[in-house]
Amino acid sequence: MVTFLHTDEGTDESAWAGGGLAVLPELPLGPQELAAMKFLVLVAHPDDETLGAGGLLARLQTLGAEVEVLLFTAGEASHPASTTVSREELTAIRLAEFAAALESLGLKDRWRYHGLPDSGLAEHAEAITRCVSEAAAGLAAPAGRLAIVAPYRADGHGDHEALGAAAASVAADGGYALLEYPIWYWHWAGPGHSDWQSWVRLPLEPGEESLKAQALQEHTSQTRPLSPHPGDEVLLDESFLRHFSRPFETFAWTAPQEFPAGKQDAAGKAPHTSKDARRIFDGVHSREPDPWHYTTSWYERRKRALTLAALPAEHYASGLELGCSIGMLTADLAARCTNLLAVDASGAALEQAAERLAPFPGVAARQLTLPGEWPDGSYDLVVMSEVGYYLAADELDVLLERIRESVVPGAALVLCHWRHPISGWALDGERVHTRARDRLAWPTAGLYRERDFLLETLIAPNASVPAP
């Protein structure tokens, strides 16, 4: 564990402001998704909830999301040297402040207090995990996607880390989403520390910033001196509080897993695999010719333009597109490839693709269910857009090995995937890209990530490299 004192000088907010936090990708959950979810918020000490997630809580209340808050200590050990306020008195003060802060955020009477000892949560780890697990299961039932919001498990404070570890364990076992909010990390760490670089931002509306500031004002025992006497000094000074006046909040984000560790879902269903893809997508395309609005959506047109711009070379001799659907991206890729093979599991989608691609010489479309079926040939470009999560994890590994075996040295692999949760399948976009990076161990030529999708280009080595 990191050792620090709250009286240490700490990292100035100006260092963080210039360190790249403002360009972190956004949390991949829009208003409709947040409103449909349920949230279990874990708090070690009064004020943690406002500092780390006050803006998020204000948004959830506005959207009408179901929120339950669990407070584990009263933070009664915050002024151990005080001669004017006893621990019992400070317990009452801080619980009243907590209630007032949550009321400011629109969460009056939406919390429970567990009364564990301040600075002693690590000694109650098993009971905390059991408590969080029961609360999460109760909130998620009978149906609903759940997110646990908790202190960052490597925040440097023993109580935060104990509660964060319990949250991470319960989230992994239950397949719940996890949002970890850092508090003391901003104090002892700096931009050179690597943890934050994989986190996400939640940009705050002005009204959310205002509500967060109002809630923080309720925690007067922490933001102002208890009295002029020694031992009653302010705990959270202005330099520390500046970390929490940003126009965004930052979270370590773990997406929900509908099928954690290969388990069935709550209804006893197993995740879909490639064997289901042909049936599912034939049905989708038979009911509607353009179910994802490829031909009309500005989002889809813009994403295709960015995908084309991400291709490192102007022209390719032999391209392979995995999961071409109705051929919209294929038609754009045709101008960049002498020969291009587009494959998809859905025959219904390929009927449209074949008609759309007929004017392009050198372009062919084939129905293949990947990775069991695979085309012959060698390719200097492989494009996999919105496909990887429609495979089981072991199938994706096989697919990546097929790609490795089928590309020429220096070939480009372009991956583009939706960052939001994917219902009915075991993987999501972030996991697909992480698995591709880890499995192939190819250098990244370009990476673009926004709230909705992730676009990445990997380059095959110029010499043959065995699988790791």
What does the model show?
The protein is of the alpha/beta class. It has helices spanning 13-17, 31-36, 48-63, 87-104, 125-140, 158-174, 185-188, 206-217, 220-223, 238-241, 274-287, 298-309, 328-334, 347-357, 393-406, 429-440; strands at residues 38-43, 66-71, 111-113, 146-151, 177-181, 200-203, 248-254, 316-322, 337-344, 363-367, 379-385, 407-418, 444-449, 453-459. Helix 3 links the parallel strand 1 and strand 2 (66-71). The strands form two sheets. Strands 3-2-1-4-5-7-6 form a seven-stranded mixed sheet, with helices on both faces. The model has no long low-confidence stretch (mean pLDDT 93).
List the helices and strands and how they pair.
Layout (H helix, E strand, L loop, with lengths): L12 H5 L13 H6 L1 E6 L4 H16 L2 E6 L15 H18 L6 E3 L11 H16 L5 E6 L6 H17 L2 E5 L3 H4 L11 E4 L2 H12 L2 H4 L14 H4 L6 E7 L19 H14 L10 H12 L6 E7 L5 H7 L2 E8 L2 H11 L5 E5 L11 E7 L7 H14 E12 L10 H12 L3 E6 L3 E7 L9
Parallel strand pairs: 1-2, 1-4, 2-3, 4-5, 8-9, 8-11, 9-10, 11-12
Antiparallel strand pairs: 5-7, 6-7, 12-14, 13-14
Task: Summarize model confidence as the mean pLDDT.
Answer: 93
Radius of gyration over all CA atoms, rounded: 25 Å
Structural class: alpha/beta
Number of helices: 16
Indicate the proportion of strand residues. 15-25%
Count the E strands: 14
Low-pLDDT windows of residues: none
Span from first to last CA? 32 Å
Q: What's the main sheet like?
A: 7 strands, mixed
The global form is elongated
Spatial arrangement of strands, main beta sheet? 3-2-1-4-5-7-6
Provide the succession of SSEs: HHEHEHEHEHEHEHHHEHHEHEHEEHEHEE
Helical fraction equals 25-40%
